Structure formats: structure tokens, C-alpha cells
Amino acid sequence: MPLHTQGFKDEVNTIAVVGAGLIGCSWAALFAAAGNQVNLYDSRPEAARLMSDFWTSVKPTLIKLGMATAETVPKLEVFTTLADAIRDADFIQECIPERLDAKQALYAEMEPVLKPQAIVATSSSGLKLSDLQAQWQDPGRIIIAHPFNPPHLIPLVELYGNERTAEGVLQRSTALYERCGKVVITLKREVLAHVANRLQAALWREAIHLVIEDVASLKDVDTAVSAGPGLRWAVMGPHLLLNLGGGEGGLRAYCEQFKDSYHQWWDDLGTPQLTAQNIDKLVQALGEEIAGRDYNQLRSERDNKLVAILGAMKDVEAKHLKADDVA
Ligand SMILES: NC(=O)c1ccc[n+]([C@@H]2O[C@H](COP(=O)([O-])OP(=O)(O)OC[C@H]3O[C@@H](n4cnc5c(N)ncnc54)[C@H](O)[C@@H]3O)[C@@H](O)[C@H]2O)c1
Questions:
Q1: How far is the CA of 276 from the centre of ligand 1 (A)?
Q2: 185 beta partners
Q3: Å from CA of 163 to ligand 1 middle
């Protein structure tokens, strides 16, 4: 168990997921596959069918990852009222659309019904915790827990709590997420869009610039990421990798060798906007790249490759652990 969660049992028996869209269904599938009782609520009446279709579509993937078997029947119940879904929940993963007014209205409805120790974790991609806390009687129980899509496959979850966050809430949440197989990072201060989306935004901005300025085709720009640095980034972050790029001298040698180059490159990076014209150009170029493959085909291609990478990494980590045991 990681040091920072030692002594914290997550003590979560029931998790409520509120919002059964792209992110909510994926969280619900992950929590259920990890053996939790999951209560789901969405304001749309078709939520039960959406969740059932989602579970059926991801079950083979969960089986390949060793998170479910053919016999697994998820403890997943879909409720038609918010109060019934959250009343017995120890932990609530909120996944409604990214609008502050909608989230605040939902919290006002939730707060009187919650169990005393229940934690509310919002999946919000970019809203500020201080704004999300504003109308709570007890702001100490709400935190940011931002997943990367799709949460049932991408391990990362970004946690943020501030000076108003109650003692133990981040640690209990970390313990729960780690029990469900997530990899947790914790932000030290509030920043727009957390960490991973800022990194994605920085890379995507330059990728758009290269396409719009006709430096390379959209297909080649995507390939430059997925067949190059993207593959390395799956195993190590940029600092660790560039530490290796500096040879025996490590990151310091790398910085000394390339600082002038980076300063020139950073000055030369593009700052495109998502104007209607640029969106049209990107969408048209994307159409040529995907060549008729539909959403579901692309989704299963992504998921199959992710499962292969995750499985291979698990094997490598297990071998390292075994080697450490022997040594
Ligand atoms: N889409 C992504 O890639 C992504 C990634 C990480 C985090 N997020 C965050 O997750 C949250 C949800 O995003 P999404 O993409 O799943 O949205 P979505 O539009 O796919 O799903 C939102 C769901 O919430 C339901 N809903 C709306 N109001 C509700 C209410 N008051 N009570 C209950 N249900 C309600 C909707 O019917 C819908 O099913 C957002 O905060 C978003 O920023 C999204």
C-alpha cells in the first residue's frame, strides 16, 4: 500500500454514480467490476438501458484485463430518483455535464440526503473546486477526482482538495481508487484544467498548428505522436525520459545540451484558435484519415490496443517484482 494511504481503509460499501453519460457509465462499470455495489442515477429515463448496453459492450474488455469473468454479474442498480441512489452511498462520483450552475443545483439537492461521512467526488474536467464548494453547508466533503476518458481503461485519476477539504477525505478517496486499480495523482494547488488536460491542451495546440499550417497531414501528425513520443510516454513521463536522453549526465546534461534549441522551439510554437475555418479543416482532414471507420470501430480499435499495452505492462511489472524478490 502506498505510504500516503497507509492506515486509511476506504470503508466504502456503496458507490453512487450520478450522470450516466460517457464518463458516468465508464466509472460505474469500473466500480462494479471492482466488486462494489453501484447505484446509478441519471435524469434521463433511458439510463438503465444505456448502462446495460455499456456494460455489455465493455465486459469483454474487462475480462481481458482480468477485472471480470464471463460469470460476473455487476452489483449495479439504476434508480429513478437522486435521493434513492445516494441515500446509502459512502462515496458519490458526480458525472453530470460541465456546467457550474447545473452542478451547484445538483449539490443543493444532494446535501440534505447524504450520509454523514459520504464523500462527493466530481469528475469535472476544468471547473474550480472553490466554485464547486461555494454553496455547500459542508464544503469539506467535496473534492475533484478527474478521470481520463475512458475511466474503466485509463488508470489516471487527478485528485484535488483544498484548505476547506476535511481531514482524511483525500486519503480515503485515494484508498478507494487504488483498490479499484486507479493510479492517483494529487494536485498541490488549484489550477485551471488540472494537470493532464493542460498537458493534452499544450500538445494538441501544436498538433493543430502543424495541420493548419500544412507542415504535415493530420494523419502524419497523429502518427508522429502515436508511433513516436506517445509510445514512450505510456511507460515513463517526459522528465524521466529526457533524463535518459541526457545519457550518463542525466537531465542536467540534457538541459545544458538542448536549452538553446528548446528556447528557439518554444518561441516558434503556434497559437491557433478553434475558429470555424480551422475546425472545418481539421474535420475534413480527419474524415480522410478515418476512411469510413465508424465511432464503434474506432472505439474498439483504441480499446483493444489499450488493453494490449496495459496487459503487457502488468506482465513487465510482475516480472520486475519477482526479480526484486529474488535479489
Ligand atoms: N468526456 C470526457 O472526455 C471527459 C473526461 C473526463 C472528465 N469529464 C467530465 O465528466 C463530466 C461528465 O461528462 P460526460 O462527457 O460524461 O457528459 P455526458 O453529457 O456524456 O453525460 C452527462 C450525463 O449527465 C446526465 N445529467 C444531466 N443533468 C443531470 C442531473 N441533474 N442529474 C443526473 N443526471 C444528469 C445527462 O442526462 C447525461 O447522461 C463532466 O464534468 C466532464 O467535464 C469528461
A1: 25
A2: 158
A3: 27
Instruction: Indicate the domain borders of the chain.
Output: 3-186, 196-292
pLDDT value of position 10 = 72
Q: Which residues line ligand 1 (CB under 6 A)?
A: 18-24, 41-44, 95-98, 102, 106, 123-125, 146-147, 149
Closest CA to 2 of 246, 175, 186, 245: 175
What's the pLDDT tens digit per position in 89-135? 999 999 999 999 999 999 999 999 999 999 999 999 999 999 999 99
- CA-41 nearest atom, ligand 1: 33
Give 323 or 304, the one with higher predicted confidence: 304
Q: Which residue's C-alpha comes closest to atom 30 of ligand 1?
A: 43
**Per CATH, the architecture of 3-186 is what?**
3-Layer(aba) Sandwich (3.40)
Rounded to two decimals, the pTM is 0.92
Best CA proximity match to 13, nearest among 70, 80, 81, 87: 87
CATH fourth-level superfamily of 196-292: N-(1-d-carboxylethyl)-l-norvaline Dehydrogenase; domain 2 (1.10.1040.10)
Pairwise CA distance, residues 144 & 122, whole Å: 5
Q: Which protein residue has the closest C-alpha to ligand 1 atom 25?
A: 19
